[in-house]
Amino acid sequence: MSAATLVPLLVTLPLLGAGIALISGRHRKIQVAVSIITLTAVLGIAAVLLGIVDASDTPLAVSVGGWPIPFGIVLYVDRLSALLVVVSSLVLLAVLLFSVGQGAADGDDETPVSIFHPSYLILSAGIFTAFIAGDLFNLYVGFEILLVASYVLITLGSTESRIRTGVVYIVVSLVSSILFLSAIAMIYGALGTVNMAQLSERMTELPQETQLVLHLMLLLAFSIKAAVFPLSFWLPDSYPTAPAPVTAVFAGLLTKVGVYALIRTETQIFRDNDVNLLLMIVALATMIVGVLGALAQAELKRILSFTLVSHIGYMIFGLAIATPVAVGATIYYTVHHIVVQTTLFLAVGLIERRAGSTSILRVRGLMRAAPVIAVLYFIPAVNLGGLPPFSGFIGKYGLFDAAAQVGTPIMIVLIVGGIVTSLLTLYALMRAWNLAFWREEEDSTETEARISYLGAAPAAGTQTERRVIPRIMTAATSGMVVVTVALTVFAGPLYDVCVRIGETLLEPISVVQVEDGVQE
Predict the structure, then answer these.
(1) Is the previous residue joined to 389 through a cis bond, with omega within 30 degrees of 0?
(2) Cα 154 vs. chain centroid, distance in angstroms?
(3) Which helix or strand (DSSP H or E) is residue 319 part of?
(4) Going edge to edge, which strands form the sheet with 60-64?
(5) Which residues pair with 192 in a beta bridge?
(6) For 274-325, what is each residue's pLDDT tens digit?
(7) In b/e form, how buried is each residue of 296-313, taking b as 16+ CB within 10 angstroms?
(8) Taking the CB of the first residue and of the last residue of the chain, which one, N or C, has fewer CB atoms within 10 A?
(9) Euclidean distance between CA atoms 247 and 236, whole angstroms
């Protein structure tokens, strides 16, 4: 069997699993087993494909249905897409195990099993479709699959706040989708194809002004999905209201699909029509505004949501540098952020269950009461803050080094902005650590006087009942913490892969000729 025949399984397996989970709605154990087996299988297949494409230095492509380019759908797996599918399937599997524990403890109140598992697998299929899409329209299809499934997941429980934020989320996503679809139609009308390999060759045929219009339309659409400032207004209110596992997977993966689309657009389609100065300005604004928003929050999920926005700025920063080393550092930082941000949200989910709240004005004394949770929060927190020798420091150092090699004044400004953002991120997360874990009851009066300015912060008064923490939830979070440490321990080989990806992305693409449906 040819290796390329494994490529469609990355999408078909989750869709098949979703169908089985849907018809097994009354059988919780069957749904759980199907979901775990499906994501485990995808993880294994993606790891095999990553090994193959990295060793051979040749991408794999499958023309679905045997239709020739540009008429058929082409699924395309190179180092970048294979790496992101491996990371995303690993994260999806860990969050699934976390949600299984939550469902077993809480019943159907937070994550109704009959709805959750089919929706979760469809969400997974949408993510994988976006990562292996060989043309813009199939990338659009992946986004729409994501949109449908994510709306169901973000409104689980049907509370007033979840419905309200879900409506905002769906409206913003639809606006982005309309922009994306309009850009696809204009590109097809101008060049007669939406295949990315063909677009990389033909885009130079258009006048620079026409390229710029198409470029900005796609940039705007993807920036909304990636939560790039000032188009990130929807995220801090949308994510914190969802159930803990849904928030974790959204924070880790959904914005990164938008970042992935930006990477493909900037490095392959519009290589000769750059908007790098604009990207630099946007990157700096995203970093600074996002982290300042985090400092003004008193609720852990909102703090993490704003840090999520600010750290998207680092990825835009790397794209704006536009050198192979910078793109490689961007991809490494993207992988780091997927894992670390997801882990932090899972840790906050444990804090909420143990303390009955995620407000740093209310939670205290957890170091004594829950030392394991303290460790599970602390490690990814200092990692996200960029403390050496963790992967957050490695990724940021790679970006700063690439910018220093360019050496222009605006690069120096961005380096300073990145360092300030990193320090403020560390401060925001460690302030939360001190208040939630180190502060005792006798310290409350003096401490609360110093942080009184947070009293009016959104959702600062939210309080829920304390709940039992099943072992599988702690085990899933612990496993993700181990993965965050592994990103540091094995940073050398992973970073080398990312640099090779950066070098490949900035090279011209040859049109993939697919014969008999499969090409290796």
Answers:
(1) yes
(2) 16
(3) helix 300-321
(4) 73-77, 60-64, 518-519
(5) none
(6) 889 999 999 999 999 999 999 988 888 899 999 999 999 999 999 999 899 9
(7) ebbbbbbbbbbbbbbbbb
(8) N
(9) 11
